[in-house]
Amino acid sequence: MGIESFRWLVGNGQSILFWEDAWCGDRPLRVEFPRLFRLALNKKGNVIDFSISKGFKEVNWTDLFSRPLLEREVQMVSSLKEAVSNKILFPEVEDKLLWKHDSK
């Protein structure tokens, strides 16, 4: 049983790697957005490192990349923003690693 059998339930975002862990869907964001991952300045940051005010709606995404984005990359960032926009961090709650096949 590999790590792909697990997913993260976001709490405070301190234990979950933003790009590397499956926390926003079934696959890591580096797999969903490989081009953006290659351009990311912070490839090993935790979820909390990318959030502002316990969420992601106010993040200036263009500052997170190594160069100005091309138009098609801007569209990818829009999809990334949509994917994470409904996630909220809870400072008092620890992140939890769950088995994907657990019904709870």
From TrEMBL:
Origin: domain of life: Eukaryota
Protein name, entry field: Reverse transcriptase zinc-binding domain-containing protein
Taxonomy of the source species: Eukaryota, Viridiplantae, Streptophyta, Embryophyta, Tracheophyta
